Amino acid sequence: MTPSRLGIADLSERPRLGFKGRETLPAMLKRGIVVENRPNRAFRQADGTICMVLAATEVFLLSAVEGSEDMLSPLENGWRIEDGEHTYPTPRRHSHLWFAVQGAAAPEMLAKLCAVDFRTHRFADLSIAQTLVARLNSVVLRADIVGRPTYHVLTDSASSAYMLSCLLDSAGEFGGSVADAGSLVT
């Protein structure tokens, strides 16, 4: 996708996973996840996975946008209550849709749906907003891809048709459209 083009890609088929509990951050560190106790901040992993810290007791992991390696399956399948880590997995693949909005006009487009100032000089790469987008409780992460501002919108998967409709309506003013997920990285 060209930097000036505004595209909305559905990444909902990509793996995602959460963990909650009072010892979530130490459990993630033990598993080699780069993370700090900085709520509303995300951390890129070496394989492209992103660890979002939503609270001191909650993380939300997004798989890499490209590639087939899935580091999330071993995290989820390797969790055992017997380990007594005071954290537990919260599967997000079926509960949260995942749309990526990329392009120079993305902050202006999102301003039509949300009161957060997503302009790049105000909302830095790897920043997180837990807010309302189109009247839905949402998590918005800015995680740039190949140097282009990219906003990841995560919300209730039961509202996917509604959210996509709202995003497309807002993007229409800027010439935006649905894009293939592969176009985010080219």
Fold topology:
Blueprint: E1 7-10, E2 16-20, H1 24-30, E3 41-44, E4 50-55, E5 58-62, H2 72-78, E6 88-91, E7 96-102, H3 106-111, E8 128-133, E9 136-142, E10 150-156, H4 160-172, E11 177-178
Parallel strand pairs: 1-11
Antiparallel strand pairs: 1-7, 2-5, 2-6, 3-4, 4-5, 7-10, 8-9, 9-10
State the fourth-level CATH superfamily of the largest domain. Probable tRNA modification gtpase trme, domain 1
| Whole-number tally of structural domains | 2
CATH topology annotation of the largest domain = Gyrase A, domain 2
**Percent range for helical residues?**
10-25%
Number of strand elements: 11
What integer value in Å does the Rg equal? Answer: 16 Å
Spatial shape? globular
Strand content: 25-35%
Low-confidence stretches: none
Average pLDDT works out at: 92
Features:
Gyrase A, domain 2; single chain; alpha+beta; 18% helix; 11 strands; 186 residues; 2 domains; 4 helices; globular
Structural summary, described in words:
With 186 residues, the chain is of the alpha+beta class. It folds into two domains: 7-12 and 95-184, Probable tRNA modification gtpase trme, domain 1 (Gyrase A, domain 2, 2-Layer Sandwich), CATH 3.30.1360.120; 16-91. Helices cover 18% and strands 31% of the residues. The protein is built from four helices and eleven strands. The protein has helices at 24-30, 72-78, 106-111, 160-172; strands spanning 7-10, 16-20, 41-44, 50-55, 58-62, 88-91, 96-102, 128-133, 136-142, 150-156, 177-178. The strands form two sheets. It has a six-stranded mixed β-sheet with strand order 8-9-10-7-1-11. It has a five-stranded antiparallel β-sheet with strand order 3-4-5-2-6, with no helix packed on it. A hairpin with a 5-residue loop joins strand 3 (41-44) and strand 4 (50-55). It is globular, with a radius of gyration of 16 Å. The N and C termini lie close together (6 Å). The relative contact order is 0.23.
